[in-house]
Amino acid sequence: MSKRAAETEKSPAALKNLSREQPEDNGEYPEEMGEFEDQYGDDYSSEEEIIEAGADGEDPGEDETMEDQMELDKQVYLPSRHRLQKDEILEPDSTAYHMLHRMNVKWPCLSFDVLPDELGDERRSYPHTVYMVAGTQAQRAKDNEILIMKLSGLHKERQHEDSDEEDDDDSDTEDEPILESRTIPTNSTTNRLRISPHSHTAASMAESGEVQIWDVAPYYRSFDTPGLVISPAAKKPAATLRMHKRTEGYAIDWSPHARETLGKLATGDNDGKIFVSKRKEDGSWASEGPYTGHTGSVEELQWSPSERHVMCSASSDGTVKIWDARAAKRHQLSVEVSSSDVNVASWCRSVDYLLATGADDGVWGVWDLRTFPNAAQGKTVSATAQFTFHQQPITSVEFHPTEDSVVAVACADNTITQWDMSVELDDEESRDTGGVADVPPQLMFVHHMPEVKELHWQRQAPSVVVATGGEGFKYAIPRDSIYSVFKTISA
């Protein structure tokens, strides 16, 4: 997993080599937190306006030029396939979103996770509220933080419809999203962070090689409990695990099994070692391992959603391995899923034999784990579905929490894509390509986001996606971390 590069133009090789330029520290920083609102206003130019201008007494000799220009306007722009010119910018079509918001924080964040809340499941009414935890990548190690955030007032995207000024004023007042935050100091960049499915506990893989456990429950409660005092003890890690010594890593996952409510954690490092750590009744932790077998760094770990002791690992050696944590620290199955590094993986929660992977060559796919035993017999194992639409490293992949055919993918080409594996075109539909013949029919949506690093579905609000990315340096100030929260009309 690559760290955030200093420039969006950096090559994939530079990203993988973890290169990062340091901005000049001039003591000036952007405001750390505050209210945020939809970044896109209501001013726009419609195609209808262009047509009227072309028909309003202009030289008939310009008709052909106008028609050519209009034809160009109809071409589909794909951020992953086209480059913007210096004088061009991308503006989203708000009609393609049910909801779209963006916010900035002080430091870049390579990783975050969504906190479960008590506001109910299957939430569909607006405005939405999202709680989440993130770890920073500050310029100086001592400036790093664990961020606990509450995003509220996330309103539905307003369409560009005619309305009187009074209605507009009321809407502006009601539609102000609010960001509240709390911070915990830490002394190292957070490479990866995950929230326990059983409690408001976070685990982070640090650049220093430490695995830190954070009790974020008091911070979560403080958002909705005025006057709540957070104890000094809550501002330190609940535990620090050092089994990886000084070797950093990116792979970390909590067991979702109902019998592991105290906490069971799998972690993997750049030396290819995997450890399994369990919390005891007295609050202490015990680690088992290392589990070895990979010849490259362990980039991702995922516990089985149904088998208590089973987990899978994805590695830069191009393989996915299946492990039984009880079986002498050796993998049970191994399948080569890519000729390049396997960066990310997602084990489907609703269909427990489906696994999605994303690789450094831009290829991502879905695998049927029931076919993996064939590899042990020397047979070829192929993906159930595989896509080469992206041309840059895949940085995040995640199954929809309830729709097993839907997958969200983040890529270093500055895009987030949503896919539906259940889509199949008939012959007539296949002939009508709409000018995008090379785009798979399973591709439902493309969202542009610079340097996107990680995405997650908000499991309690169907089809809401949260993602973190970056915008580069501005005025010698450390780059902001940009979070997008959106729900598309395709979902």
Describe what this molecule looks like in 3D.
This protein is mostly beta strands. It contains seven helices and 28 strands. It has helices at residues 12-16, 47-54, 63-73, 165-174, 217-222, 373-376, 427-431, and strands spanning 97-105, 109-115, 128-136, 145-154, 178-185, 190-195, 201-206, 211-215, 239-241, 251-254, 264-268, 274-279, 285-291, 298-303, 310-315, 319-324, 331-336, 342-347, 354-359, 364-368, 385-387, 394-399, 406-411, 415-420, 443-448, 454-457, 465-470, 481-488. Strand 14 and strand 15 form a beta hairpin. The longest helix has 11 residues, at 63-73. It is globular, with a radius of gyration of 24 Å.
Topology:
Elements: H1 12-16, H2 47-54, H3 63-73, E1 97-105, E2 109-115, E3 128-136, E4 145-154, H4 165-174, E5 178-185, E6 190-195, E7 201-206, E8 211-215, H5 217-222, E9 239-241, E10 251-254, E11 264-268, E12 274-279, E13 285-291, E14 298-303, E15 310-315, E16 319-324, E17 331-336, E18 342-347, E19 354-359, E20 364-368, H6 373-376, E21 385-387, E22 394-399, E23 406-411, E24 415-420, H7 427-431, E25 443-448, E26 454-457, E27 465-470, E28 481-488
GO cellular component, one term: nucleolus
Region (Disordered): 1-68, 153-197
Protein name: WD40-repeat-containing domain protein
